[in-house]
């Protein structure tokens, strides 16, 4: 029996679907693993590296996720994707900050002091652009629910993960970070797995996921 949700990937090539599927699993998985390498709430060399590599997979993952809405919300699927990618790049910058801070022994106090001096650059690349990533996922989850393009629980978990994500990064509490990352990993990896498992059947212009 088919659900009333349809995941529209009919215009994508098989190579695109495989790339998107792998990326939807790898990107949130690396996010999840990276916080296990926090030290005092900060990214280490290993954690920062995982975060940077995760960003490379997040971009094609986002391409696949936003493609689900390109027919029903074409303007949002295009511009929303751009905003989400900007947030991803900021995440990579946070990872690089962790790497350099550890390698060169830059204290958090020194970093914040210098950030205040170069506030425009740091706000553009880190502090103001950083929230765009969870905000983009929150709006994405809401639109998934509105347009019913994925099972309801997927949309709800993405929304919960998007809310918990900034809370974990602000509080720097590892347990909250693990929970937030798991809330994003489960639903996004589920969509990716559906792509890789080829559990879709052609239905004219859409591919409907079987249950």
TrEMBL record:
It comes from the Bacteria. Keywords: Membrane, Transmembrane, Transmembrane helix. The chain crosses the membrane at residues 20-38, 44-69, 76-100, 120-142, 149-169, 175-196. This is DUF4386 family protein. It comes from Spirosoma profusum.
